[in-house]
Amino acid sequence: MxxxxxxxxxxxxxxxxxKITKAMQMVAAAKLRRAQDAAxxxxxxxxxxxxxxxxxxxxxxxxxxxxxLVGTGKDEVHLLIVMTAExxxxxxxxxxxxxxxxxxATRLRGEGKTVKIVAVGRKGADNLRRDLGxxxxxxxxxxxxxxxxxxxxxxxxxxxxxxxxAGEFDVATLYFSEFKSVMTQKPTALQLIPARLPQPGAxxxxxxxxxxxxxxxxxxxxxxxxxxxxxxxxxxGLLENAAxxxxxRMSAMDSATRNAGDMIDKLTMNYNRQRQANITKELIxxxxxxxxx
Length: 293
Prior knowledge:
Structural class: alpha/beta
Number of helices: 6
Distance between the termini: 32 Å
Number of strands: 5
Largest sheet: 5 strands, mixed
Radius of gyration: 28 Å
Helix content: 55-70%
Low-confidence stretches: none
Mean pLDDT: 85
Strand content: 5-15%
Order of helices and strands: HHEHEHEHEEH
Shape: elongated
């Protein structure tokens, strides 16, 4: 059994930890609202861009369509863009994204495909280093950015497009966590290259559809819009990740705070029991000594 001093030290330590987790929970709650607003504001633009590309892609001439739309004609080399956070202490947020990417990488390698990884965020590289460290060809550090702006997504998109133009991969897939609620974040895989266009009759295409004439032609417009769409989708993924990270951290720190409170209660009970046992032992010794006299 631990001594009273050890119990007091442990109680003080857990109380200090509870103060930290409570503060982190409050900071995450303050950041969550802004991150959630940014993520939800970016969704309509991305959805509208998908609809526009779908309309253009269905009318484009396949023989002259951009390579970002039709691909290289091969399916041998896959680039996985895994976006996670720079920090931990956010529950399973980082590990769930890495788990999805690892499962897809394992499946692709089992099919004889070549897998390459671009890790955006330190935790993604840390999670994948043990199994897929040799497959990581680039890392993007987000620690120097106080706020995630479109310029960050544009830089990542330029790197991806440069790799594609150099013939480094055939298919690119983006991995991020879609924000659903404070308690729910969904790991998501989104194919970027070749562009996966919405199918006719999808929910986004319901309702009356107007007939458009495009000038210049569809292929030329697509050649301008597709690179911008890649940057837009990456930006949306970064914003979704930012909101998901704060939601997951808020939930994790709330659980940690409550667990610390439970541990303090248990330690206090054990401390009181030990203290009462010591008092009882001293009284017995005093009584026994008095009787001996």
